[in-house]
Amino acid sequence: MTDYIKIELLRMLRNKRYVIFVVAFPVAFYLVFSGIYGGEVAAGGLSGKAYFMVSMSAYGALAASLMSTAVPWAQERGSGWLRQLQITPLAGWKIITTKLVASMLLVLPAVLLVCAAAVLVQGVSLPPGRWLGLLAAMWLGVAPFAALGLTIGSLLPPDTAQPVSMIGMFGLALLGGLWIPLEVMPEGLRSVARVLPSADYAGMGRGIVAGDGLPAGDALAVVVWAAVLGVIAVLAYRRATARA
Amino acid sequence: MNAIAFADVSRRYGDVLAVDGLDLTVEAGRTVALLGPNGAGKSTSINMLLGLLRPTRGRIEVFGHSPDEAVARGEVGAMLQSGELIPELTVRELVAFVRRLYPSPLGLDEVLEMADLTALAGRRAVKLSGGQAQRVRFALAVVGAPRLLVLDEPTAAMDVESRLRFWEAMRSYAEGGRTVLFATHYLQEADENSDRVIVVAGGRVVADGTAAEIKAGAGGHTVRFTLGGQAAAGLEALPGVSAVEISAGTATLRTADPDATVAALYRGTTLEIRDLRIDGADLEDAFLSLVQESR
């Protein structure tokens, strides 16, 4: 299975769309936002440059997990690659497990690059424990989005999976407060943000960066979302790969 | 030991019976062609053989196991009718990946050589032509050294020269006791590359034997002549005749005994016979007559 994970990583790193959306965009946006708002102090006492570091890491991770799952998986189902794998000794459960693991590994470049830009360009500095905590939270906390992407890829054909995953990505990013801080959103939108996993996901990162530790409410919400979407993803995967 | 055994296998899609009580066995070590027109049930049968589809009724065994078990044990390799590759990966990466999924595969370089891919090994799949991609799919099918190789219309995207090379590669793989089952609607391919031809039509086996046996069994010869406006009644009762076709004023009689048929045509009828021609049937005639009979 490590071979399989390896080729999944390799193919995405060679995919231009992945590299642009997932690796280049978050870093570029971070530099723009932190350049404008970097000196301000955001809610919770975080500096603007640290606040947007978490936001753009979260956005990059969200984009990476959806982009590396939904459309590639929908394409593989439609194009016959899945069938090619199904007639080899590779067990079915390994396919979805590999997709999940690979997708979670593929969020790391975005998170690491945004953090690197924050350190190198904006001079953000944190105690080592907080860096590790942030990376761990950003990495593991992406599970609900990877599950969502796999669900989309299992249920929809590629040409529908494409717009749906895009809408999902921008919707979760925008309404979850990754682009516009929750604090400046109108009340109506803020109540939407409260139920979205992306708001909790970024909330975990902000809590850690601010030195408040892992916010229990946000973490619990992400775990519940991961469990619910994970079950849905497995059911959708079974449906998609059932041998009729 | 049988490599493949279908026992009374049927597959229904809604109201359509794609495979209708198929019974067949293939001994290990044979190269068998599954020959039939489009819609005969070839692909459905192959997908059931590979465990990708479940039979509505009946039982399939591959080397004495269920298709799923045989696939899990790495005993089966297949080239399906359609199947894209992962565009961002190179030929070598794809073949090496699939190779490692099997317990005792062939050597990577050996397979690339066999499939004529050595020069393309570093090329990404997105840049391959249709015929080149087809060769990669052949390499993916054989790289695990499966005892049973299944090919569903493998030469569909190939030009004439690629076809010749493809069948050469297939034959070299089959040497050494491996079993090959391939589906085709090209009669010539079945004739030239198999030692047994199973003709299917309407989801059933309509003939089974060597290409030579099938030619003989389906009325080995044709007798043709210009009938013009004369009545055709009684032609099917002539000795040796198995089928009569009349089209555009020409009568075509399929016969196992052309001498007797022609003698009776002159002596036993009052027809005016012009432009008489006798031909040995080729596999195509045999095939068409079998498929027509089954309708």
From TrEMBL, chain A:
Keyword set, alphabetical order: Antibiotic resistance, Membrane, Transmembrane, Transmembrane helix
Annotated TM spans: 18-38, 50-74, 100-125, 131-152, 164-182, 219-237
The UniProt record lists the keyword Transmembrane helix: yes
Boundaries of every ABC-2 type transporter transmembrane domain copy: 47-235
Entry keyword annotation includes Transcription regulation: no
Compartments, as annotated in UniProt: Membrane
InterPro entries linked: ABC2_TM, ABC_2_transport, Nod_factor_ABC_transporter
Its membrane topology: Multi-pass membrane protein
UniProt-recorded name of the protein: ABC transporter
Automatic annotation (TrEMBL), chain B:
Major subcellular location class: membrane
Annotated InterPro entries: AAA+_ATPase, ABC_transporter-like_ATP-bd, ABC_transporter-like_CS, ABC_transporter_ATP-binding, P-loop_NTPase
Official protein name in the record: ABC transporter ATP-binding protein
Record's bilayer topology term: Peripheral membrane protein
Entry-linked SUPFAM superfamilies: P-loop containing nucleoside triphosphate hydrolases
Swiss-Prot/TrEMBL keywords: Antibiotic resistance, ATP-binding, Nucleotide-binding, Transport
High-level lineage: Bacteria, Bacillati, Actinomycetota, Actinomycetes, Streptosporangiales
Compartments reported by the entry: Cell membrane
All copies of domain ABC transporter, residue ranges: 4-227
Pfam family, one: ABC_tran
Molecular functions per Gene Ontology: ATP binding
